[in-house]
Target: Myosin IXA
Amino acid sequence: MSNHEVGGRRRFEDSEFTLHIYPGSIAEGTIYCPVTARKSSTAAEVIDHVIERLRLDRTKCYVLAEVKEFGGEEWILNPSDCPVQRMMLWPRVALENRLAGEDYRFLLREKNLDGSIHYGSLQMWPRGFLPQPPPGYHDDLCNLPDLNERTLLDNLRGRFRQEKIYTYVGSILIVINPFKFLPIYNPKYVKMYDKHQLGKLDPHIYAVADAAYHAMLQRRQNQCIVISGESGSGKTQSTNFLIHHLTALSQKGFASGVEQIILGAGPVLEAFGNAKTAHNNNSSRFGKFIQVNYQESGTVRGAYVEKYLLEKSRLVYQEHNERNYHVFYYLLAGASEEERKSFHLLKPEEYHYLNQDCFTVEGEDLKHDFERLQLAMEMVGFLPATRKQIFSLLSAILHLGNIRYKKKTYRDDSIDICNPEVLPIVSELLEVKEEMLFEALTTRKTVTVGEKLIVPYKLAEAGTVRDSMAKSLYSALFDWIVFRTNHALFNNKDLEDNAKFLSIGVLDIFGFEDYENNSFEQFCINFANERLQHYFNQHIFKLEQEEYRSEGISWHNIDYIDNTGCIHLISKKPTALFHLLDEECNFPQATNQTLLDKFKRQHEGNSYIEFPAVMEPAFIIHHYAGKVKYGVKDFREKNTDHMRPDIVALLKSSKNGFIRGLISIEPVAMFRWAVLRAYFRALVAFREAGSRHRDKKSGVRNPRTPLSDLQEDPFRAPCAVLCVSLFFHCCYLQHLLDVKSLKYLSSLTLHDRITKSLLHLHKKKKPPSISAQFQASLNKLMETLGQSEPYFVKCIRSNAEKLCKILDALVLRQLRYTGMLETVRIRQSGYSIKYTFQDFVRHFHVLLPHGTSATQRGIREFLRQIELPPDSFQVGITMVFLREVSRQRLQALLHEEVLRRIVALQRRFRALVERRHYCSLRLAACIIQRSWRRCLHQRGQAALLIQAAWRGYKQRELYSGLHGSILLLQAASRGYLAPKPERKKRRKKESDIVSCHCGCKNKYHSPGSRIIADLNFCLCQVEEFNGHIFKATQYSIPTYCEFCSSLIWMMDRACVCKSYFLHLLLKQYDLEQSSRQFGVELSRLTSEDRAVPLVVEKLINYIEMHGLYTEGIYRKSGSTNKIKELKMGLDAGTEWDANSMNLDDYNIHVIASVLKQWLRDLPNPLMTFELYEEFLRTTGSQDKREMIRGVYSVIDQLNRTHLSTLERLIFHLVRIAFQEETNRMSANALAIVFAPCILRCPDTIDPLQSVQDISKTTSCVELIICEQMNKYRARLKDINSLEFAENKAKSRLTLIRRSMVQVPRERERERHCDSSPQVYEIFLKYSVLI
Model:
């Protein structure tokens, strides 16, 4: 990689851009939030910056939406998409006026729990409503009561003035180009037209796309949408809307990437295939057919782009007020100084191919367009080296056009080059020899019998050869770009023999053209439009009316303009114009006049062709759209526009493999040769590096080289560059070529590749003409359309001046030549809906009475019973014919009947569920009543016991009082009667007894305290000691039995200080108010310093230290009491208490059960309720790789706390699963245990549906565990390989060092030279492994 390329990439990578993110109703009061981002910044990073700056709720999911025009089309960005790259694809005006009222912008959207996007109410953008036409204007022209050209045009004009540009003709859509943007293409309308029948809502291009998509899924048949119209009628824009809508319909939670590549391919094909014409500043000079392939589930699996007839003559010649292709002007204006020197670029007016007329277009920014082109090419997959080769070839083509010829003065039959200074530049850019280039451009080699002649070109022939070489190179380059785009859109599953897929094709081909000077290109373009009009007539008129007659229904034929004769005139052998043109091209002496004379002789009386009265080299064809005059000048040259063998041999001798691949007939062979050359070049490079290293180190005696010298050794630079290149190419693995895909894509595009014209090198074959190639590609297109169900979109120009809200007489002319009046008439009076008897019975069997057979009589009787109008249907011999009104009536009845049956089933199911619920409530009520009666009985018995105890207590108290009084009385009496000394002693003793304690009972209540509620105590005053008042307390201490783990309450007595007891109450109350560990949000348990909750980390670490080899570690459960005790211990205290808690006192199964209980108690599981549906949707894919990619794309949407905890848990489960032989816990068993814990269904989901989803959630968790196990094994394998390589290198170096010490000094230098390559080889192997 050159310094220029590195500098160019660093300039794009390091540049900072300011994104304006509009939060809308999410952050009221904020118009937009400016965010600084780089080109590589993803949408997820931008959303994080916006959330941080606006301080939004992180528990909600947000997405970025790209909006094109205010209220216009809007596309949701994936978390991995780069918004800056999207912004660089916007027009220059949108980037300069980003603060204007209507522009391109990014919106912040909120994502709902079900995965959908919350857009708010439709009143948010009043302009987004489809305007309602006034009464009297019909959205379907078949409903016109009075059908003629005037009413038809008035209806279209009235709708057009109300900005209703879409109108139906049955299932055909008419589009009138308004020449301005209408805000009717945002996702509101995508959702509005989803799963709606065609004609139920207002006409729209989305309705056609939705009808084709669902028809493909229901009927399992390919569909196609044919878009036709004049140049400037809006065909390309309609194609873009269709492609975006089709990809939006197929996205099931995550994008497939096809839309991204199509988004990048659009600007690339536009730059290389579009040019300014007299009528359009961005006219497409080629046709394309985009085929989107779908899986049977409806998701996009790939796409394919096919091009038709690139206008090569524009490269060398342009008419007045026209320009060459856009890419040349982009390159000359946007290239850097280094690129200008490298490619030898000049100013546009200095090139012959560019200075023929105008250079600029009003309002364009060529430098911005060049950067936009480079970003688009990078999105498609073009590497920087490939882009450099493409631009180098473009510069070579421009310089090739500057070569001028002159006759030699001393020889009349020889020519020379006027400006020989151009030859070295062209030879350098093409990497060919200058002498060979000069010979190829001035002489030709012819082979006669036994000898080879070198004949110089004439002056006119030399210019033709030069222009032919330039046109062939550019056309081959355009074919290669289309080929690589198809490879980027290609799905390898298409190579399988049993691959089944459906497709929807969108045809955007050049419109009918009639210029002042019409040539061979306009002749081919108008012939293609004739074929499409014939295809339209076949489906709308001819085939339909023939089917009516064969079925024997009453019908009056409708006349229409049949253009079969015009098609036979141009293409039917042996007298077709194309065939006669090919014959004239084979005669060396043929001229334009001989060609015109042959046309006259063969088709003198044909009504579809006429010749001018004056002597003019032209002829006139009567097309379906009118008469067009074609000049026969250059017809033969353009039809045989291929390079001579000398030019082909010159380009094949180029040292540039890219140029050799462009002119290759067989891409597979070129690819194999390129791989073989790369292998030998790498081998030679390594050998040369080894020899240079040996020569440099030959004079050094010490075989041990410091590591710093090896690191600074210049011979390792190629290896470093090679490693960097390999790493860079690995980032684009999805765009790497392989033999199978090359064979498949080559078979699809060989009929229209310019390299096929090089087959004239074969002696037995003649070169296929351009008209033959075009007819082959057109026949293949018609074959593809014939195998699909068609939908027609007719685009109409509103006026020739491209003004808004103006509809002139040009519309009527287009309606006439397209046969729209006849189309409306046959749609109005015909039967657009057809069913065979079997299909009708199978489709409407719900409505049919029991026993109705698939016969004419049974179906006719059924249609009469439902009271359909007699003129809205007919029953033929084998088919049922319906009009659109009748079909909608039948579909409505079918929908009502299906809904009625669904409601009946729901009613029965709900009755069953309610019955079961009632029975369970009744059983619970009986149990509660029985328990309550038992409780009342026990309370009565307890009351009796309490009353008895209370009465006994009162009696004992009374007895004790009387007993004490009597004792006092007796003592007083005895003391009075006793002697005096003994009386004093007794009186002293009595005073001590009187001062003894008295009983008191106190109760302490602490609100919110659970432990104090478990302590039953009574306090008695003992005494005061050292300032402390002690209380006699009786404790009820909970403990567990060591044998049966049952709860035991032990009673004990103690004296507790009163102040310490109150301190215990306050401490317990504070513990209750602290944070819990179970049943709380995960964000409360984590912080910036701690990504995983402490409780989870502690439990997992303990299980990995002590229970990794325990059998059934998560299958078996521990003691319920122990589980409750451990949970209370972890939940009641703070984080410090939980961390200090000793887990050695509990069984390992108890700890594992507590971990599962913590996961189940989370309010929002680890894999979140919001992403539940998306996880289930990804498991529906049949391909395991696609399923893994989908699951990980959904995991990336988790927030940081959930993602960190989930990663820690999955790593723990992988460690458990690796010990399956010991603990008997496989990945499936772990998924069964933990799926209900980390991937729970939301409460809003029906219970029956949640039971059915158990297998999907289990398979999803098992998939994650298995994928992480594979990555873990791969890393272990790499580590083992590195250790083995390191030990082998150490042992080999040790042996070499020992052997070199033992030999004599005079042989030491020779032995060192022999061993250096070995050391180098070992070191290389070890470095490659690293």
Remarks:
- The chain has 47 helices and 28 strands.
